[in-house]
Design goal:
Elements (H helix, E strand, L loop, with lengths): L1 H4 L3 E4 L10 H6 L1 E5 L2 E2 L26 E4 L27 E9 L2 E13 L2 E3 L2 E3 L2 E13 L2 E9 L2 E6 L5 E2 L2 E6 L6 E2 L3 E7 L2 E3 L5 E4 L3 E3 L5 E7 L4 E5 L5 H4 L53 E2 L5
Parallel strand pairs: 1-13, 5-19, 11-21
Antiparallel strand pairs: 1-18, 2-3, 2-4, 5-6, 6-9, 7-8, 9-10, 10-11, 12-13, 13-14, 15-16, 15-17, 19-20
Pfam family, one: Vps62
Protein name: Vacuolar protein sorting-associated protein 62
InterPro entries: Vps62
Length: about 300
């Protein structure tokens, strides 16, 4: 399968504390809430197969938050994720979803969705900002007639695109660098300021750091799906659980109010804890270009750099 032969390999940063995590572990350590109130009598037990039953609550599921059972400021172990072993596998933890969108006429987009239980935000003037429970990041490779053309690297609210041929590779497999804590994806190691969308300079106030720490091969523990754009639905490959893909809610806690003792005072309107992310369904899986449509011009770089 092309989705495996040319799948990205991920370098996790040498200082990483929050490693790729098992998707089901996220369910077993959380409970569904709407507006900080637990859903009464939710389906039990929730699994990756039936998680989308929560779409029956709260605005088709969009107001549902998988909320931590234990105060996250106490550092529960499940947030740490799983360190890949010597083969690059997250043992006993399925931390990736590979989603294939075949547009026809030889055009195929393959998404590599990476899951982490915790996102550690950036520190700005000694203030840690943007932490959240649950973290979905991704690469997307666009193929034409079986040949990889370009790759998207998700980075916070936007990202970057590069031609396949210019990327660092291990054999045929492109390398992506996961930023320490935030898990944003970059094509090169080093320092990356992400204050300006689609431009990552080595200096600035909002810095991500990437390096060759632990190598992770997401394809060794992953679920596989086909995406059906006409119905915005997923088709399971090898009995991969569909409920997790169709779930419309958030994979973590709702942003704590300022009155919550866990939430430090805002720093110029920014907060330490923000809401958890939506899942893969919300990552523009039916794009017309390698970049998602965000209003920012899609630049596909043919040289490595910021």
């Amino acid at each position: 399968m092309l989705s495996i032969m040319i799948a990205p390999l991920v370098w996790l940063d040498i200082g990483e504390q929050y490693f790729p995590s098992d998707m089901y572990e996220q369910i077993t350590n959380t409970h569904p809430e709407i507006n900080f109130t637990s859903i009464e009598n939710p389906p039990v037990p929730l699994t990756l197969h039936n998680l989308d039953v929560l779409n029956e609550y709260g605005n088709d599921g969009m107001n549902v938050y998988l909320t931590s059972n234990i105060d996250v400021t106490q550092g529960p172990a499940w947030l740490d994720g799983v360190v890949p072993d010597s083969t690059g596998k997250t043992k006993n933890a399925v931390s990736c979803a590979v989603i294939i969108n075949d547009h026809g006429s030889g055009d195929v987009d393959v998404f590599y969705m990476y899951f982490y239980a915790y996102n550690l935000g950036n520190t700005v003037f000694f203030h840690e900002l943007g932490d959240h429970i649950g973290d979905w990041e991704h690469n997307m490779i666009s193929f034409k007639d079986g040949e990889p053309q370009a790759i998207w690297f998700s980075q916070h609210a936007n990202g970057q695109a590069f031609t396949y041929k210019v990327l660092e590779k291990e054999g045929l497999r492109p390398i992506t660098y996961s930023a320490v804590g935030s898990h944003a994806n970059y094509a090169v190691a080093g320092r990356h300021d992400h204050a300006i969308p689609d431009l990552n300079l080595p200096v600035g106030f909002l810095l991500d750091f990437t390096s060759q720490g632990q190598l992770w091969d997401p394809t060794l523990s992953t679920y596989f799906y086909n995406y059906q754009p006409e119905t915005a639905s997923f088709e399971s490959i090898n009995e991969s659980p569909l409920g997790a893909m169709h779930f419309k809610g958030r994979w973590g806690d709702q942003r704590y109010p300022d009155s919550d003792p866990r939430q430090p005072p805002p720093f110029f309107g920014f907060r330490k804890f923000v809401s958890g992310p939506t899942g893969p369904w919300d990552k523009q899986l039916n794009r017309t270009n390698v970049c998602p449509e965000t209003g920012i011009p899609c630049i596909i770089r043919d040289t490595l750099g910021p």
